[in-house]
From TrEMBL:
Name of the top EC class for this enzyme: transferase
GO BP annotation list: GPI anchor biosynthetic process
Source organism of the structure: Tolypocladium paradoxum
Chief subcellular location: endoplasmic reticulum
Keywords, alphabetical: Endoplasmic reticulum, Glycosyltransferase, GPI-anchor biosynthesis, Membrane, Transferase, Transmembrane, Transmembrane helix
Pfam families membership: Mannosyl_trans
Family the UniProt entry places it in: Belongs to the PIGM family.
InterPro entries: PIG-M
UniProt entry tagged with the keyword Cell cycle: no
Lineage: Eukaryota, Fungi, Dikarya, Ascomycota, Pezizomycotina
Subcellular location: Endoplasmic reticulum membrane
Function: Mannosyltransferase involved in glycosylphosphatidylinositol-anchor biosynthesis. Transfers the first alpha-1,4-mannose to GlcN-acyl-PI during GPI precursor assembly. Required for cell wall integrity.
Protein name: GPI mannosyltransferase 1
Single GO MF descriptor: GPI mannosyltransferase activity
Enzyme Commission number(s): 2.4.1.-
Amino acid sequence: MGPEAAGGAAALWLWNPMVATISTRGSSEGLLGVLTVALLWAVEGRRVGLAGVLLGLAVHFKIYPFIYAPAIVWWMDDENMGRVTAAGTKPPSSLAQSLVRFCSPDRIRLAAVSLATFTGLNLLMYSIYGSPFLVHTYLHHITRIDHRHNFSPYNVLLYLTSAVPSSSSSLHTESLAFIPQLLLSFVLIPLALAKRDLATSMMAQTFAFVTFNKVCTSQYFLWYMIFLPLYLPGSSLLRKPTLGISVLLLWVVSQAAWLQQAYQLEFLGHSTFFPGLWLSSLGFFLVNCWILGIIISDGVGRLETKSTSRAHIE
């Protein structure tokens, strides 16, 4: 990608009105974007120690970047770390040999440094703030019931749950939301995409994490928007303008439909929970699932293209 194309792609973040609006209201998502992009830069630059520090710092800053760990570890094979010789690498002959080779010094170093950074920062914060630090930083997410400004399909369910005393409730359905969310963002997408296109994998992981989260607000959109300058230049959304325009319009229109229902609820006092708010939440969710499928398809396509190109070279 040339300098002009790179500058145009960067403008997707720098000149994005949503980024500016959310940043000016006191949100720290811009700083988190710096950390995640710096993490990607350090990993692809094979700066393992720095990558470990950035990963530990990012997860301490806000929990969700932990989903990048399996993608990074999976990406750090001999080929991507530049350890493949001209003669190639002999394939392992047993499962034990595969495990030993997988636990490379670089992967062990990344795990050790990131864990030490994360643990050290948490111990420091706990020594300053005590148990409220644990409650507001981690435990809050387990019991969180946030039905305001929430695009998630779990929105109405969370509202109904909030009316039930916690002492008389057992396991709620929304508590199981993390299963498809982590299965996609933490396991399946890294396995499918990370080997050849780490940036697209991180984009897809973040998109899946936000889409399937039981709480989804506008500021979360910035978590994946930071990867747009890296993903879009080679994506099918630009190669096929009709597809790209359709994606943008449906994403905006489905979001606007939800906001219209939420405005009637919160500002006008009309009860729009069902069917209006619930159906608009489902519509926005389905649009995001469709977009996620496009991102994953683009990543798989890039992987196949690189594999084909490598085969022709050899």
